[in-house]
Amino acid sequence: MELSLDELMALARGVRDAAHGTRVTYSPKVFIPLTMLCRDRCGYCTFAQPPARLESPYLTPEQVLRIAQQGARAGCHEALFTLGEQPEDRYEAARTWLSAHGYDSTVHYLHAMAKLVLAETGLLPHANAGALPEHELSLLREVSPSQGMMLETLRDDLPCHRGAPDKVPARRLATLEAAGRLQIPFTSGILVGIGETRADRVAALEAIADSHRRHGHVQEVIVQNFLPKPGTGMQHEPPCPLDEYLWSIAVARLILPPEVHLQAPPNLSDDFGVLLDAGLDDWGGVSPVTLDHVNPERPWPALDRLREVTEARGFALAPRLTVHPEFVRNPQRWLHADLRFRVMDRSDAEGLGRDDPGALWPEKVTAADVVHDGAEVVLVGHRSTQWYSGSTQLPPTLLPSSRSTAIRGPVAEVLRGVEAGQQVGFDEIVTLFRARGPEVVEVAAVADELRHRAVGDAITWVHNRNINYTNVCTFKCRFCGFSKGPLSLNLRGTPYLLTLDDIAQRAAEAWEMGATEVTLQGGIHPNFDGDYYIDVTRAVKQAVPKMHVHGFTALEVTEGAKRLGEDLATYLRRLKDAGLASLPGTAAEILDDPVRAVLCPDKITTDEWLDCHAAAHEVGLRSNVTIMFGSIEHPESWARHMLRTRALQAITGGFTEFVGLPFVHMASPIYLQRASRRGPTFRENLLMHAVARIAYRDSIDNIQLSWVKIGAAGAVQLLQAGCNDLGGTLMDENISRAAGAAHGQAMTEQRFTDLVEPLGRRLQQRSTLYERIDTVAR
Ligand code: SF4
Predict the structure, then answer these.
(1) Angle in degrees, 0-180, between the axes of helices 92-100 and 106-121, rounded to the nearest 10
(2) From the CA of 297, how far away is ligand 1's center (Å)?
(3) Which of 285, 402, 520, 747 has its CA 20 to 30 A from that of 353?
């Protein structure tokens, strides 16, 4: 029995929803028509032009770069190279131009231009060079993270392809197969309405699906509708009827493996929202700056309209890279070694495109001439305008939001469970981290309500001073721009070690200025034994007996105990007897060992961090949970971190707070070695704190943000997303600054008040252990 169109579309939607949820992606791109010469003559095409109609057979490198820079400035991620197929085979003008410029072929020139664009703008090229032999696909794989070629149809007798030697189906199938063998993330697709039948479309889609099953390389399939264009052979043919188009999209969704993304161009349909009903999950490339050169009469919808239409149907729109996340997250297999950092540099933790507005240029740095305790590199060249942790750029405004769209899908389901009192587990936490657009607003609203119920409306802060007693460290944490190893004296600033007198004096000064806490942490100096930490604690307590000593990471404590040959509990008891009152959670980074093996291979393991905190709680010392996020890890690791610490809290109840510490990439060695992302996006920052509020519900009541890394404007938004604590005033905070954070060294009560008052909430000074400071005798 044949299904009706409505039934077919409902089935296709089901497949799409199960595989991709409410996520609909698009690629912000700039279109670079490298050459409009083509040896083929297709009956529907207005792109290809004869040499006489063109000023020059090819865009010059200067023209290419100008277009790409325009795209980069507008916040694009992709440089889509579109070109005719093998024009040098047909046109003398093409051969002459290429040889005059030192290129053997169009593909060689494309390789050079893609390399140029990548180096100068960081935009990721997507090469759309048609049916190519294996060696040319392989050459382009060095410079183009993904490639594409429409299969179009398997019919070899269509009148529209009569003058098109490259449209012979066997050649196109061979290209698709070769791309699979070369492990190229590949885009293909079919045309609908060029004279083929439904059975022909099914055959073409099955061929694509089979190739993908053999190689796993088809990242997306485009289903594109024919529209007649004046001046072409098919100008008098009827356009593809909407029902036929919807049928084809739905059938594509049902034939293709569910993980293959399905795309339809939004600019070729007047009411493009209806295409979502047929099961697509991707709008393809959308350019804020250039025309669709293949369909110049059909401009792309503005991004705002694309978002509006997408959200109105209950989806969340997300920018992606030329390579889809499944491929981004498996770079060893899918990306040429030269491209792995380029792709990572533009991606977020899920492997989608970074979604903060603004330009993202490749960072070029030189060593700073003058190095004190701040960042040791300076940026040269184009400056990115996107927000990142530690920068002075304003973050996008996610909250408060005027969005009123009701959300549906997996994020909505998890939130309904939370509202019904359920505890979130691994899958639910990962789902919440996928939130985009209106979903982010809802996650924040639920977190804000939980905050209100748990701790009320007061926003707390602690008056403290950071004392980083040494920056000499024998450990080699790859993210750490603070430590100075013995071999890096000249390269990385001056190593220092404060004396006990210095430390005592800083504590006394802090007390005079009103501080109630000193936070002690530093590098692991090769000369320290465990008694050093005890001596430091005593020095502070002797200078200021009432000062709360919050100090020593799990690494320092574990090393101290090890160097003395003591067990953790004995050693922690001695520290407590000397006056230590609580431990910071730092050194946790990400409590997920495969990530630690890359980030901080010689540091304590997840179990050792947890053992140390369990021992501290056992001897009566409170501590907190921190997470350093946004370097190399993915949301699954964030979920594991939350679940391991929540499990310990269920046993000991010793954690006072959760602190999100976004990774500051500038001047961080791992970023300078081109092996990490640029820290979390602002959306990820907001979600980290909101999801923590939800995950630690009835477990850890206080969620703290790090104003040093997030800045005042970001802090105000996080306070509306589940956070209730601003942390410390942090006089002399050196560690974030050493990694490039630009925010000042100290906050004041007045500056905290300025942040809090516009929210209609009350600022409350607290002790380290969350007692109201006006009720505690100093
Ligand atoms: S993070 Fe701490 S342990 Fe690691 S290198 Fe830096 S100072 Fe040393």
Answers:
(1) 50
(2) 58
(3) 402
